[in-house]
Design a protein that fits this description.
The protein has ten helices and two strands, in the order αααββααααααα. The chain is mainly alpha-helical and about 260 residues long. The chain has a two-stranded antiparallel ribbon with strand order 1-2.
Length: about 260
Amino acid sequence: MPDKKSGKPTAALEVVMVDRSATTRRPNSPRMTGASVHVSLAGEIGLRIVRGDYPPGTILPNEAKWSEVFEVSRSAVREAIKMLMAKGLLSSRPKIGSWVEPKERWNLLDRDVLGWYAASPDRESFLRAVQELRHMIEPEATALAAERRTDEQMNAINQALHDMDQATSLQQRTEADARFHIAILRASGNDLLVPLGVLIESALNHLFAHVTREEDNLRYALKLHENIEKSIRLQRPTMARNAVRKALANTDEIIARWSR
């Protein structure tokens, strides 16, 4: 990051030499066209940052270089850089350019950033980190939901469970699964927990997109979710904690089998 007084990169963050392949367009990547060119470009650059092509402190190629590599306008490059700055991945300064910020400044609850993480070669570590956070948060959140849920919130939980049972594709099942857990976070009555729903949704979507789930496993998972719903409906916090822990343990096992 540049020194505030001199406006130059500090010694601690020297310019990182980037592999030539990191600044070339992939042969099979689609040509970026249309009104959302800058969104596609931000996605391509963001993914490269998250997967480590550009480590923190790296000065990125300038507008002219990106424009040449992806055959887009400089204005599209500028808009893409602005998007990545808003997500905390980049900072920029005139005469210096854009550089990658330290990971702790990235907005890890941003849907796009989560998607890039889950699509990176290190996605297994990402999923394990999400599971660790879920173990810390969801049992207590579900216990709160059992104490505080309204009839309307209970209906939302029931509907998501029903949709899981009636889903005709794994995608529908996974979407309903995510809605189930998000509805519980809302029913907890703690607004600070709700944004974590984005994290859970992203993790579930990307996990089950890369694994095959047998029918027996699907039935078992549904039973675990039914137990969670029952504990909230009957307003039994301790039962709710235990039910969620069993469901999370099942997901842990799926990740472990997938990683073998």
